[in-house]
Fold:
Amino acid sequence: MAIQKTDFSHLGYQVNKELGKNRFGGRITHLAEVENTDEKVVIKEFRFADVGADWSGFKAYEREIEVLQQLNHPRIPSYLTSFETPQGFCLVQEYKDAPSLASENKFTPEQVKQIAISILEILVYLQQRDPQIIHRDIKPENILVDKNLNAYLVDFGFAKVSNNEVALSSVASGTPGFIPPEEYFGRDLTEASDLYSLGVTLICLLSGTRSVNVGKLIDDEYRFDFKSFPSNIHPKFAGWLGKMVEPNLKHRFASAAEALEALRSIPVVVQQKSKESNVFAQSFALLILLWVGIAGTQGIQRSTISQQHKIERQQRQIYRLRYKQRQLETRISRINRLQELLQEREQTHRLLDRLQKKKECEDCELQKVNLSNSQIENVSLKNANLRHINLENSNLQSSNLSGTNLKYARLQRAILKDTNLQDANLRGARLRSAVLKNANLSNANLTYANLTNVDLRGADLRGARLHRTKLNGADLSGANLRYTNLHGIDLNNVKLTGATMPDGTIHP
Structure:
């Protein structure tokens, strides 16, 4: 049976190729282009209906959207929008032409230092925010690096905002081998927690080790084996790495700013002055690395073998309990989600019945409700919260939607003729091929909205916000654009016959 190709063309995206697929199923990353433009985007798709799909993946996407909307950094790909699909949910993000560290070959020590500085600069930004953000899943797969060795940090699905509870669950999140010891033991995370994961990542780069094989670098005494390291690593750089992955928080760098300041002036490799001095430096570097005793997540270094064995047994017990807890939480989340879906379906039926009979639901909370293909003309949803609502192919002609929150709403091919959308928030809304003839959109927020091929004949757009709004193929004949800021809006393929322009003139 042929695999059906993903198609988001009805949403304005042309999928070029699949960038990756989660091995547990249900999570797929696509490279796509925005139709009628050269803009490339990344679409992260979560299919909760797929066999093997874990609902916690959807929660991770929700968390990632929540976090990304707060961030503005040139090396954190920006969140653009999100939308629902019949199979699940999609997140659209800025595309960076840079492969992940996991797909690249072994790096030189100098390159590793440059990458480390680049990521630490991002962590400084995250840690100096109010509230702070802890990424919690730093690993080669989540770091992109371009040809100039500029690093980009992605995948904030496990992120923790400092004034919130731990994201998703109380169980250690992230990737085994990269998770700091304090998280395994359920202790509070700090600014130093991401440094541990970054340190392990750098060790993988220096040794050419894949993430899944990080355990092979750990010897029988639970210390990293550095035989695969370049022989000319400078002792100071080795010591810096050791402090990055120190199991004891008290001995680790306290923050990204402290680690960055220490790294900038540190030499990475030993300069070959003579054969004897080079051999001595190599030996000294190896002794430093062995003395540091970088522990993996399977064990924490202690002063005696008996203490190590005791801790090892305790950790194995904890890991087993954590694993069983994960399994139980997964089962519970699936049951809860099934109950949620049934409740949502029942809620939708009740809502449709109310709208069709009473014709109103003012100030209602209707986030993410699916009302696609509904006939609900002449209804009043004034000031309702319709964020992420699905009204695709629905008929809301002559309805009152003034003051509503329609942020990221799906309104493709919806009939909104003569509808009152004054002061509505339509940021990021999908209105492709919708009919808004004679609609009142005065002072509406249409930032980042997709109005491709929309019928806006005679519509009132006075004072509407159109920053980065897509109007390709739209018909604004006779529309009122008085006081509307059209700066930066491409009007080359927009019909404006008889429209009142921002300065009050009538377009020929």
